[in-house]
């Protein structure tokens, strides 16, 4: 079976204690042999260097399985973490959709 895309949503904290869960979720998603894996990080509240390493591993696993890897939903704080760690070229974040002023919310942490 081969699907066009698969999606994994991460929420809460992504750190050394939770990174194994990312690998397991990515492996399950790739078992269906999708052409693309979307890793949704919109609900992350924290991500440290171990979490970023887990995302880089997920990207590498996708390449081995010939699946496109997309990081979606990254908030500005998370994007700053990626920039500080100088991995934005490896984990690019697509531009956020343009929202109307009525849809703009107060800033959130990551």
Q: State the shape.
A: globular
The residue ranges in which pLDDT falls below 50 over 5 or more consecutive positions are none
What's the name of the CATH homologous superfamily? STAS domain
Helix content: 25-40%
Strand % is 15-25%
SSE succession: EHEHEH
Taken together, the total number of domains comes to: 1
- Calculate the mean pLDDT score and round it: 88
Classify the fold: give the CATH topology: Transcription Regulator spoIIAA
* Contiguous helical run count: 3
Number of strands: 3
What structural class do helix, strand and pairing data support?
alpha/beta
Please write the CATH class name: Alpha Beta
What is the name of the CATH architecture?
2-Layer Sandwich
Write a brief structural summary.
This protein has 110 residues and is an alpha/beta fold.
């Amino acid at each position: 079976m081969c699907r066009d895309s698969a999606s994994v949503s991460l929420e809460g904290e992504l750190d050394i204690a939770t990174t194994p869960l990312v690998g397991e979720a990515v492996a399950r998603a790739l078992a269906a042999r999708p052409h693309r894996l979307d890793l949704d990080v919109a609900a992350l509240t924290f991500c440290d260097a171990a979490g970023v390493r887990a995302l880089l591993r997920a990207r590498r696993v996708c390449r081995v399985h010939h699946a496109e890897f997309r990081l979606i939903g990254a908030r500005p704080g998370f994007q700053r973490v990626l920039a500080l760690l100088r991995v934005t070229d490896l984990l690019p974040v697509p531009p956020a959709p343009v929202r109307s002023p009525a849809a703009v919310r107060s800033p959130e942490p990551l």
